[in-house]
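yo

u said u wanted the structure for the complex thing, so here. seqs first:
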Amino acid sequence: DSGVTQTPKHLITATGQRVTLRCSPRSGDLSVYWYQQSLDQGLQFLIQYYNGEERAKGNILERFSAQQFPDLHSELNLSSLELGDSALYFCASSATGGYYGYTFGSGTRLTVV
Amino acid sequence: GESVGLHLPTLSVQEGDNSIINCAYSNSASDYFIWYKQESGKGPQFIIDIRSNMDKRQGQRVTVLLNKTVKHLSLQIAATQPGDSAVYFCAENMGRNTPLVFGKGTRLSVIA
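structre next:
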């Protein structure tokens, strides 16, 4: 157990729907990162939050949004889902800016049908 | 967090042999590098790191080599074991407060 908790582990939904992925960071970590892992793209950075504020943004689609709450847990919202959004979504956390690496959760596997 | 199904280059090695996994990184300004291991059903896990002012770092059964001239990293695993079967990613950090950039990964398959 890495200490980073992601729920749900698996999610199957239809095109056009909206889902929310949840992440609880490791105790004491202030930064949360979201990555997408698809078949051909490896790990793609989506977005980072630090202590409730957006810190960095990657190739995140406008249909996707995220936030970090006062208790430091984070949610990634995916809307108007398309087949191509099917992927593994990982959350990671770090104590500060993540320079020395992150601790990853086990991921949420999203399947859009 | 399965990595099965990823379209990745695969390295197959016999149990007990040494493995070498290579990675080309993208940014000459990157100053810190990490190797991650992703086993089936899990997220990536930190293995070993190296700073840009070093060219070699050793851990337990693993060694990372850095060649800044050609922007190349390698991970050497000694006496490869079945438990080493996983997908391995290199990651580069281009500076503080910037997110890690991951390479595409290599699948290591250990033949017993």
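The mean pLDDT of chain B is 91. The longest strand of chain B covers residues 86-93.
cya
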